[in-house]
């Protein structure tokens, strides 16, 4: 199996170098390039075809949010974006999820957790944890008016709605299966149907949609 290809995007050379050393030393991962700003990141992404972009938010010129929109919005690319952030950038994190990022890690994340996060995102899952992501989404949807997207939720079955609520709570497929006392494959089928019916790229977008549609009420 080929190594996962990672593009490291950060405006600090020392941080990029540290990530490169860590990731290149991790089995199954290869850093294929670096970028110090969003414009270069988008260009490198198109040239190098990475599987995952490890993306900083605050950079000169085009920032990580705009770069994420360019990468995710390009149908010729299949790269996933993992945002690197701090607790002080909550609002930016929510904007990144809306832009199509598949999740985020904190800058003080232990090395082994960062490596695991890259693998999770590359597999098509989203890095969503109740401890951080759900709190951020709930807070910033609370501040903004609820917007029901044109796709709506009318085409969902009652069980699909219930599963979507659990996804929005940051629960894994295994936890959802245990909650409803069903098989893991059944949950995977429900999640796949949710992604298809709601035209969502991944679980991160499902979480945002669950809050924006009003299905999940912040603080509930």
From TrEMBL:
The keyword Nucleotidyltransferase does not apply. Keywords: DNA-binding, Phosphoprotein, Transcription, Transcription regulation. InterPro entries: CheY-like_superfamily (IPR011006), NreC/VraR/RcsB-like_REC (IPR058245), Sig_transdc_resp-reg_C-effctor (IPR016032), Sig_transdc_resp-reg_receiver (IPR001789), Tscrpt_reg_LuxR_C (IPR000792), WalR-like (IPR039420). Transmembrane segments: none annotated. It comes from the Bacteria. Coiled coil: none annotated. Residues 5-122 form the Response regulatory domain. The modification 4-aspartylphosphate is found at residue 56. The keyword Phosphoprotein applies. Pfam families: GerE (PF00196), Response_reg (PF00072). Residues 149-214 form the HTH luxR-type domain. Gene3D superfamilies: 3.40.50.2300. This is Response regulator transcription factor. It comes from Cryptosporangium japonicum.
């Amino acid at each position: 199996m080929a190594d996962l290809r990672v593009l490291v995007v950060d405006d600090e050379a020392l941080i990029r170098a540290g990530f490169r050393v860590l990731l290149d030393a991790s089995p199954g991962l290869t850093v294929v390039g670096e970028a110090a700003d969003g414009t270069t990141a988008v260009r490198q992404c198109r040239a190098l075809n990475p599987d995952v972009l490890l993306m900083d938010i605050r950079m000169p010129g085009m920032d990580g949010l705009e770069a994420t929109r360019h990468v995710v919005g390009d149908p010729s690319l299949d790269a996933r974006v993992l945002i690197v952030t701090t607790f002080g950038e909550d609002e930016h994190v929510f904007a990144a999820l809306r832009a199509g990022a598949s999740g985020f890690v904190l800058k003080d994340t232990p090395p082994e957790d960062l490596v695991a996060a890259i693998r999770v995102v590359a597999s098509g899952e989203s890095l969503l944890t109740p401890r951080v992501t759900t709190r951020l989404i709930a807070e910033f949807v609370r501040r903004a008016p609820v917007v029901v997207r044109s796709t709506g939720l009318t085409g969902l079955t009652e069980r699909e709605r219930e599963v979507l609520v659990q996804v929005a709570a940051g629960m894994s497929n295994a936890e959802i299966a245990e909650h409803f006392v069903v098989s893991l494959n059944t949950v995977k089928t429900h999640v796949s149907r949710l992604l298809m019916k709601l035209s969502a790229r991944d679980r991160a977008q499902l979480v945002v949609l669950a809050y924006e549609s009003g299905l999940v009420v912040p603080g509930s």
